[in-house]
């Protein structure tokens, strides 16, 4: 399976690179760090695929035709998925590709997430303890045979450290999907998005669902906040999407700008939201996903029972109602 993937990736890359930039270049991977030398070729390909491909380009999973309604996920059972390869996308974030039966679909709707778990020692009775975390795949939900997770690795993160320890051939236990927002084409005229860090993952899932559908006329406005320019995940990918789709507008802001930074500076403010998001309306939906501090500032966090909870923060101050805002 890996050999076939390498060949398909090698054949697909030059075509996509020409379409995206209007000409051939010798390398799509300059400056790219590969954590495992043995998988440098495929890791570089995945990094390229996420930074430079767009819904207008040919995706690898389109090579195979529909073969049946097989679903790889199970919402009631932990399923093992094998790590195929990995690629570093920033100083502390990596892409992980997990494989499954290529005749199957993952079974994920937009927008949904997965539950992952890893063993964490034993309890007093000798039973295995687990750490469990939800993640949103950034691969196309219709992809057959694989899904991709974008993980930010924290020094004290129990689950992210488990991811960092995985090597190709290792397995990850997954259950799902867990449905978040059930997206349908043209459900709103304008969708605004506020994301921080890895909060970009559910946004990207919705963005690509809209942009790959020629009958979906939804306007999208994304405000994306990070600590520094180097922390902006998949920026090249997002920029290509925005450049090739006039219905997608993106505004970046960072806490610690570099000398040549030309985007926003500081936390997402009321003025940024006022200028960068669609105004309150029955035809407007604002999606929010980020770390707890950002959520409190923007919209208020979810309730303790994981329901949407009360709308607070700058979105409430700007006149949005709870029906106009969805918190991932």
TrEMBL record:
SUPFAM superfamilies: Ferredoxin reductase-like, C-terminal NADP-linked domain, Riboflavin synthase domain-like. Keywords: FAD, Flavoprotein, Membrane, Mitochondrion, NAD, Oxidoreductase, Transmembrane, Transmembrane helix. It catalyses: 2 Fe(III)-[cytochrome b5] + NADH = 2 Fe(II)-[cytochrome b5] + NAD(+) + H(+). Its EC number is 1.6.2.2. InterPro entries: CBR-like, Cbr1-like_FAD-bd_dom, FAD-bd_FR_type, Flavoprot_Pyr_Nucl_cyt_Rdtase, FNR_nucleotide-bd, OxRdtase_FAD/NAD-bd, Riboflavin_synthase-like_b-brl. GO terms for cellular component: mitochondrion. CDD domains: cyt_b5_reduct_like. The chain crosses the membrane at residues 32-50. Residues 76-184 form the FAD-binding FR-type domain. FAD binds at residues 133-135, 150, 152, 158-160, 201. PROSITE patterns: FAD_FR. GO terms for molecular function: cytochrome-b5 reductase activity, acting on NADH. Signal peptide: none annotated. It is found in: Mitochondrion. Its cofactor is FAD. Belongs to the flavoprotein pyridine nucleotide cytochrome reductase family. PANTHER family: NADH-CYTOCHROME B5 REDUCTASE (PTHR19370), NADH-CYTOCHROME B5 REDUCTASE 2 (PTHR19370:SF171). This is NADH-cytochrome b5 reductase.
């Amino acid at each position: 399976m890996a050999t076939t993937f390498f060949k398909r990736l090698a054949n697909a890359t030059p075509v996509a690179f020409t379409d995206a930039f209007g000409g051939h270049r010798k390398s799509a991977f300059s400056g790219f760090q590969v954590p495992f030398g043995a998988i440098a070729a495929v890791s570089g390909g995945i990094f390229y695929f996420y930074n430079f491909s767009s819904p207008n380009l040919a995706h690898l999973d389109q090579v195979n035709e529909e073969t049946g309604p097989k679903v790889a996920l199970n919402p009631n059972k932990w399923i093992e998925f094998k790590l195929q390869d990995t690629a570093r996308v920033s100083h502390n974030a990596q892409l992980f590709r997990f494989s499954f039966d290529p005749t199957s679909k993952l079974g994920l709707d937009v927008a949904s997430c997965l539950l992952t778990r890893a063993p964490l020692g034993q309890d007093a009775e000798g039973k295995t303890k687990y750490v469990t975390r939800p993640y949103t795949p950034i691969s196309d939900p219709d992809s057959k045979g694989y899904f991709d997770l974008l993980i930010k690795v924290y020094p004290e993160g129990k689950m992210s450290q488990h991811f960092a320890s995985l090597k190709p051939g290792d397995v990850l236990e997954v259950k799902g999907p867990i449905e978040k927002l059930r997206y349908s084409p043209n459900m709103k005229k304008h969708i605004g998005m506020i994301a921080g860090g890895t909060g970009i993952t559910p946004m990207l899932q919705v963005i690509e669902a809209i942009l790959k559908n020629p009958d979906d006329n939804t306007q999208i406005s994304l405000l994306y906040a990070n600590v520094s320019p180097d922390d902006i995940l998949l920026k090249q990918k997002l920029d290509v999407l925005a450049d090739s789709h006039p219905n997608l507008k993106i505004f970046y802001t960072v806490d610690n700008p570099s000398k040549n930074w030309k985007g926003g500076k500081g936390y997402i403010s009321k003025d940024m939201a006022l200028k960068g998001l669609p105004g309150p309306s029955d035809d407007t939906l604002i999606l929010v996903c980020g770390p707890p501090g950002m959520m409190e500032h923007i919209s208020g966090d979810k309730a303790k029972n994981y329901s949407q909870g009360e709308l607070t923060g700058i979105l409430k101050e700007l006149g949005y109602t709870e029906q106009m805002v969805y918190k991932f």
